[in-house]
Amino acid sequence: MVQATKTARYNKLTYYGGLALAILFFGGFFFKSYWDEYSFNRDTTKLLAYYKHVVPDSIADGDLNSARHIVWKHRHNRKRLWEKLEKKYGVPVREAHEWGDYDDGKGESVEGEEEEHEDLDEKDSEDEEAATGDEL
């Protein structure tokens, strides 16, 4: 009876221990795959934002495939990529969401700039009103 209890306990511990190890083993691969994809997309977005603010209207600005290739090429040492970019352009690399308060050196922030907007529809409606007023 004692031997049967010990064997049952051992089988139960072996089963749940093996199950826990299998979950941790395969879960580790799942997490590594998830984290690699997440960091790859994050760094690609970071590189595109850097090119957009540092070298606007260049070939690299907005070229997703080129940015993905550069990040993939430096996948084992991304810190070196950021250092090379800082050295080449002289602007520190920031996260993609940090460029909103970027000062472009002119004393104005890039996000604060507004383009002048001319409402062409307003002029058309004034011309129509003037034309209808002349006909009456």
Please outline what is shown here:
This protein has 136 residues and is mainly alpha-helical.
What fraction of the residues are assigned to beta strands by DSSP?
under 5%
Oligomeric state as shown: single chain
Largest sheet: none
* Helicity level: 55-70%
Compute the number of helices.
4
Structural class: mainly alpha
> Which segments are poorly predicted (pLDDT under 50) over 5 or more consecutive residues?
106-112
From the alpha carbons, calculate the radius of gyration and give it in angstroms. Answer: 30 Å
Topology pattern, helix = H, strand = E: HHHH
Beta-strand segment tally: 0
Basic shape: elongated
What distance lies between the first and last C-alpha atoms, to the nearest angstrom? 113 Å
Mean pLDDT, nearest integer? 81
Give an account of the 3D structure:
- This protein has 136 residues and is mainly alpha-helical.
- The protein has four helices and no strands.
- The longest helix has 53 residues, at 2-54.
- The protein is elongated, with a radius of gyration of 30 Å.
- The N and C termini lie far apart (113 Å).
